[in-house]
Amino acid sequence: MGEGVDPTQMCQSLVAKVAQSKQLMAITDPELLVLFEDWLEELEEEVVQYVDRNGPVDADRLARDLGLSQRGARFLLSKLQREGHSLG
């Protein structure tokens, strides 16, 4: 299997494409953004539940167990910690 989902790269790619093209901005459906935000919230909740069940975890283990990239796991852990979630 590949390295998994990398939410950081997905966000950066989305932002770059929107910023580069006014035409794309004109045809982009706002519901797409809502779907992406919903997906990210679900992923964050999955990480919180995982830590609640398994205790403190490093990004490597989180990436392996949830099928994320290491970069994506680090991003999610640091984002949740910055937002005040107790992750162990």
Task: Characterise the protein shown here.
The chain has 88 residues and is an all-alpha fold. The chain has one domain (7-82). The chain is built from five helices and no strands. It has helices spanning 7-20, 22-27, 30-54, 59-66, 70-82. Helix 4 packs across helix 5. The longest helix is centred in the middle third of the chain and has 25 residues, at 30-54. The chain is elongated and about 45 Å long. The mean pLDDT is 81.
The biggest sheet, with number of strands, parallel, antiparallel or mixed sense and barrel status, is:
none
Strand fraction: under 5%
Shape: elongated
Radius of gyration: 15 Å
Mean pLDDT: 81
What's the SSE pattern?
HHHHH
Distance between the termini: 29 Å
Number of helices: 5
Count of domains: 1
List the uncertain runs. none
SS-based class: mainly alpha
* Oligomeric composition of the shown chains: single chain
Number of strands: 0
Key descriptive features of the protein:
88 residues, mainly alpha, 5 helices, 75% helix, elongated
Strand-helix topology:
Elements: H1 7-20, H2 22-27, H3 30-54, H4 59-66, H5 70-82
Helix pairs in contact: 4-5
What's a concise summary of this model?
The protein has 88 residues and is an all-alpha fold. It contains 5 helices and no strands.
